[in-house]
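Weekly puzzle thread! Below is a chain. First person to post its structure in token form gets bragging rights.
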Amino acid sequence: MSVWGKIIGGGTGMVLGGPLGAVLGLALGHKIDKVRKGDSKNFNTFQEESNDSQFSQYNEQEKQLAFATGVIVIAAKLSKADGQVTQDEVKKFREVFDFDPKDEIAIGEIFNSAKKSSDGYEIYAKQLLSVFGNQQELYIEFINSLYKIALADGDLHLNEEKMIKGISEIFKMPNNLVESIKIQFFEVNKQYNIKDDYKILLSSPNDTDTELKKKYYNLAKEYHPDTLVSKGLPDEFLKFANERLSRINESYDRIVQDRKNKN
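Winning reply:
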């Protein structure tokens, strides 16, 4: 069963509890008032320091459910950031995440329930922080997904970018890392800029060839499918990780060739 089917199955809200579970309960007709032991504090209060005791209670499947649910809920919040929800944005969400047509109505209910909720995006991002802890790879893919949704209408609005950056700050992601994710969406079908390639690799023109190669290998290792799935990334999101890995490979190749041409 896909991760979307598991969410719609109804048990996810009880597993997650907190604000994400509440949205599922309202959307799917379940009353969610049980929060896992120890989660109440984590879901409603931003913890300045994450530690293993906060997120080790979640297994791989539960992290996958949290990831997918979080994408639906926060994407709904993001769709309102530019002042309106267009049919293109809703359609893009369905196209990007490629779920079974029979699940569209239920997922649409979750999406709409999140839009109507008076809660801000922050409370949901903080809940995800409590689930994932310091697993940066999951945050990268989450932000990657949000940029896809934000650009559904072909433009990144100021309020949308502000929200994405706000979420990344809650996730404690460095600014240069967020910028490296954003850049890849603005170079499709355009002339590539070697400066952007360095940003994609979290590198610098001043890095030696050895330093550059080490940073490249570290990124490639992080994006190995087995690594991401073991950390809680649903299989349905692997294609996005592979797209980013492909972009990382292309950037590295261009930088290497550029350096050869200058020698």
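Puzzle host: Confirmed. Bonus trivia for everyone else. The chain has a mean pLDDT of 77.
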